Amino acid sequence: YLEQCEDIRHQRGMKELYQHRKETIERLFGTAKEYHNLRYTREKGKSKMEDKIGLTLACLNLKKLVKRMARRPFYLVQMGWFQH
Hints:
- Helices cover 73% and strands 0% of the residues.
- It is mainly α.
- It has two domains: 1-35, no CATH class; 42-84, no CATH class.
- This is IS5/IS1182 family transposase.
- It holds the Pfam family DDE_Tnp_1_6.
């Protein structure tokens, strides 16, 4: 399995994909570890850690949402920016 992953990673076009991953996914986990106390845990048990990680990632998503909303004009938010 690891050999297949390495083969895929070195195919044409995958370098850009992995670069994008480094900029998005790895940055998110780094922020969670550094600023949201996920480097070490005080909780015991899988369910407690799942709760902690879920809340942390939800907070990070809210943070991203606020940043996106700050870039948009206020009238777009009022007109139902959140509606489907």
